């Protein structure tokens, strides 16, 4: 653990009750920041994510010549470069953010400069070959170190390609679309498993033309973007922790205000319902192609059911799997997870860390290369939890601790700030003890 590591004490709770407004969606915040940076004019964004990762994207935009202003009313204004990034004076620091590094690579590759993309230790362990391949097919010159960051991009004109995505990845799709936006010709991309479509909505919001026919997306090159005014919906991935907590208490009553209801992300709500959670949509509106709604969630009277998560569903809820695994012992039938090997190359090896911490809390389970089998009807006890400096692990086991016997200490709790700095204070407000 680093010298700045903090430990968070989580005491068991009797119930979960109240309403919460979540920080802006990370995925949308990243994309709006980047497209605002290359657009013409000044974009104004409300409810921008408070997580560290999207702020890495903002800092990179500033280094590339955009002007970023944090206004007193908590909105953010970004004056774009009108399609002309400058040569940055220093390396572009992506922090802990794989989203920043992968998507930014596609955005900057067509510009006639040399760019160095760096990040923290965890980011240098994550696979980057997946974006180098399509960008090099388009004519980009990209150097990696054994398939990883730091990345050096020798920018220049790109040409359109037809690309079949080998693994479902919204970040790879976005890198190709961002490059295609500025390339010669019309770039097309085929994905056999639909990934989240925030990039498509964001590109259209900023004025780009983009077409989809069945599994194929195409984007004509040399398009110019125009600034927008936008409200960013609350982050559904952050909501996953509270939704999972609501399942653990038969009398829970949780209201999530202004939450993102994008259909490519709403698989999570289907899973919560399948596990027995009762979800009511209280209202829903559309902003720039994104649905924003208020939902009410109540826990199941007889405890959460179990389920098997595999195939396309695993890809769609990959970020939410750690918290579902953490509450799995409390379900009636248990939860089994397969086809989630991608979890091993996230901010940490999330399968290994989930297993380590379930074991610490006294759970029985079986670990597989691509997932876990976790039987239900188990009682966990308080324990010392190792977050592995991974925000989703720190938050997932804070939820598991709510139904444990005895107190739990989360070591490396500061990792939550990567995506959700307010997490522990919101959790404390919602818990009745």
Written account of the structure:
- By secondary structure, the protein is α/β, with parallel strands linked by helices.
- The strands form six sheets. The chain has a five-stranded mixed beta sheet with strand order 16-17-15-2-24. The protein has a four-stranded mixed beta sheet with strand order 4-5-3-14, covered by helices on one side.
- It is globular and about 60 Å long.
- It contains 13 helices and 24 strands.
- Helix content is 29%, strand content 26%.
What is the structure about, briefly put?
Helix content is 29%, strand content 26%. It has 433 residues and is α/β, with parallel strands linked by helices. The radius of gyration is 21 Å and the shape is globular.
Structural features:
433 residues, alpha/beta, 5-stranded mixed sheet, 4-stranded mixed sheet
**Overall 3D geometry?**
globular
User: DSSP helix count?
Assistant: 13
Q: Radius of gyration over alpha carbons? A: 21 Å
How many distinct beta strands? 24
- Specify the oligomeric state: single chain
- Overall mean pLDDT stands at 96
Helix content: 25-40%
Class of secondary structure makeup: alpha/beta
Question: How widely separated are the two ends?
Answer: 30 Å
Architecture blueprint of SSEs:
Elements: E1 7-10, E2 15-21, H1 26-38, E3 42-46, H2 52-63, E4 67-70, E5 76-79, E6 92-93, H3 98-108, E7 114-118, H4 129-137, E8 141-145, E9 148-154, E10 162-164, H5 170-180, E11 186-190, H6 198-205, E12 211-213, E13 216-220, E14 229-231, H7 236-247, E15 253-260, H8 267-274, E16 278-287, E17 290-298, E18 307-309, H9 311-316, H10 321-327, E19 335-337, H11 350-360, E20 366-368, E21 371-374, E22 384-386, H12 391-400, E23 408-411, H13 423-430, E24 431-432
Parallel strand pairs: 2-15, 3-14, 6-7, 10-11, 18-19, 22-23
Antiparallel strand pairs: 1-23, 2-24, 3-5, 4-5, 7-9, 8-9, 11-13, 12-13, 15-17, 16-17, 19-21, 20-21
Helix pairs in contact: 1-2, 1-3, 1-6, 2-3, 3-5, 4-5, 7-12, 10-12
